[in-house]
Amino acid sequence: MTRTPRSARRRPSNSSSRPRSAAILAAFVLLLGVSPVASGSAQNPPPGDNRTVVPRDTAHAERRQTLFTYRDAILAGGFTVLTVAMFPLDENVARQIRQDSTFNGFTQKSAVGFETIAAPGAYVIGGSLYIFGRLARRPDLTDFAWHGTEALLLANGVTSFLKGTLGRSRPFVSNDTNPRDFRFGGGFGSSDRQSFPSGHTTTAFAAASAVTSEIRRLHPKALPYVATVMYGGATLVGLSRMYHNKHWASDVVLGAAVGTFSGLKVVRYSHAHRDNKVDRVMLHAVIAPDGQGGGYLGFALPAP
Asked: Which of 145, 147, 218, 275 lies at a CB distance of 3.0 to 4.6 Å from 130, suitable for a disulfide?
């Protein structure tokens, strides 16, 4: 029996793993990118779907759209499956996303810009449009800006709670080797344990979801273009957070889910319940100059 010399033995090549990793990354980007289509069907039922909720006071003829539909359940199920599916791939994706030279060449120049546009950019843009809408007496613009900002606040409230409670360590803590490092409540005391889900991704997808939902109502013909830009940008925000080693792939997926649902539900609820107290306060705020180079902001609180 002869032995094969060690020098003649074949060593595993990294080249075989690269196509597989590239395919995983491509699938990840593609699945995040289908959010506009899925969220669109979840937000607006097709013609003939007139499911409604009858108010408690049945003497009134008012009928309101349901807040949650079976399409929402399908969308939530899709995000859940994708999040769970990414867990065993987190470590490999974290390494490959920074080793891919083509991806890195683009990301190095744009990652910080995308992250800045998401946070704090989304709040600055939303607040500026809200103020302009009130000053110019443009109720549609005020509505558009406020609901977008409201979606951001809701989404980040949910994300902050999950970050603190689940306490997952960020990739750089373990040098991309331990995506299963969770500690209950750990995120409340350390920013290094606020990985799950991604806050920047949550913000980006909340803005994308709210904006496209409002555009669908105001300018439906522009929806395909706006949705492509908004959701495409939101996906790039998530990828940039992975590139900077701040989040695992599953963090980004869950952040996209929280953001998408927040935007959809805020816009849907607000326009189905136009008498809700939050909108009655925020959409009728008074902004005026004070005569001394400044201004003031006033709110009228609705009677209980």
From this structure: 145
